[in-house]
Amino acid sequence: MTTTNEHMPPVSGAAGAAGIAARDTVAPRQRRRFSADLSALGEPALWGFGGALALGIIMIAVFLAVVLYNGATTFWPKPIDRVELTDGSVIAGTERRGTIFRPQLGSLDDATRAEVEANDGFAYRTLYQTANFDLYGDDFQWVADFEVENITQPEDFYYFERQTWGVFIGRIAGMTIDGQEMEYDPAVFRREQAAARDRFREIRRLERREIGGINYLIERERLAQRRAVIRQGEEEAADDIAASQARLAELQAEFEELQARVNEIRARDRNFTVVLEEVGGRQITPEISQIVRFFPANTIGFFDKLGIYISRWWEFVSAEPREANTQGGVMPALFGTVAMTLLMVVFVAPFGVITALYLREYAKQGRVTSIVRISVNNLAGVPSIVYGVFGLGFFAYAMGGTIDQLFYPEALPNPTFGKGGILWASLTLALLTVPVVIVATEEALAAVPRSMREGSLACGASKWQTIRYVVLPKALPGIMTGMILAMARGAGEVAPLMLVGVVKLAPALPIDGFAPFIHLDRSFMHLGFHIFDVGFQSRNSEAGKPMVFVTTLLLLALIVVMNATAIIIRNRLKRKYATGQF
Known about the structure:
The protein is α+β, with helices and mostly antiparallel strands. It has 3 domains: 81-167, SH3 type barrels (Roll); 173-300, no CATH class; 335-579, MetI-like (MetI-like fold, Orthogonal Bundle), CATH 1.10.3720.10. The chain is built from 15 helices and 13 strands.
């Protein structure tokens, strides 16, 4: 950049031309020097790093905002619209979402075509959840704005959540209470629906706990007979088999008694039905016990909606899934995710820490140790599905098959441990995350000052005593950092679990009241696989989309809670060994 002084006399001729040329030569030099100074200070790189950080934060914030909004609003009750179409048909449903689309102009009348062409060939349409899958064969219907004649919100329309067949939208045309047909009475129906749900839960309790327990004991007696025959032979085991048969007869009598109670409750349930009528006049007559929840969507107030919202969330975290996992709860998947993650931590912590201790404190630093470290770092980059294949082949088929032959021969050919289960899934994920723990632990051990080791040894402590009382306490916060990273990755992995134990539906939890109480051989549900199943394998992906968002929100919240707990423990350990207070 050149400057001029108005008080200086003008310069002309050769001297003036030389001065101008000099100024034009100096200016680029100054610009180059200024650019070099910025590069030396790292300003361009700083701007790039800051921009990349800001972009990453924005992307994460947008993702979390989308998940939070869609997940948090999923269970809020929506009004029911009665939509009259221009072709004379009528639909009823709750508005789900809208979008702009390009309709086929050839199928439109002249007035509608002119309106669409005035909007550059685009129109707006709305997706309605019409429900009533048992009547319509579909749950949703798109309606374009130019197809709508009139929209109303009738006060007598109800939103029914059913045990099977999903949601029903329509009116209550009548009901049968204890075998007596009568007109719909809201107070009576609400009372009888609560009593019917109690009967339904009693049936589930009898089938799952009482009858399920007897079936478990019957199967155990059957396996005990086979075990006796395998070990002793048929003649020597005759007395044991006879005693087992007597116990089986007692169990069978208890089973028939409980089954009679279940049949009695079901027979009573058939006397309590309700007539539901859809917007077109077609009717169904389900048992009242099949109505999970119902409400007049167009007349309830804010606090009623809030109560429904809270009850749906409670059902979501405490109940089992229903209707192909697109409705109900995710309690088995939530329990399976937590149990598998905790088991993984139990397995990965000792192996990772011990390996890192040996590599850092005991192993001779040389080419072999360097190769081991490189191999560990490379293992962290192996695709997770490869670990799943290894877990299925080594843990399930090799180790599990051997365990079955040695300890459970009476159950063969049905495998006990020779298949996917929560034990093999936890070990597979431990193998997947152990490189993270090893690297983090090594870095934490390396950060402990050498002077502390030398001071401990100078005071007469052995090497192990130095590691146990000096090195490990100082390195614990760093080790906890590795555990946090391992938990975060393990809780979100899905691909290897699809091969070593996770299933679409497993209502039986790995923990129950029968010895050995913790059944590590059982398959389990997982929130990550639940998201994949509902979003991509359900009969209607649109029906499962709300459950995808709300399950994603729950999985993120679970990971945050587990990580926050580990971070709090890490910080307390850091304060303890920094100040001597806990």
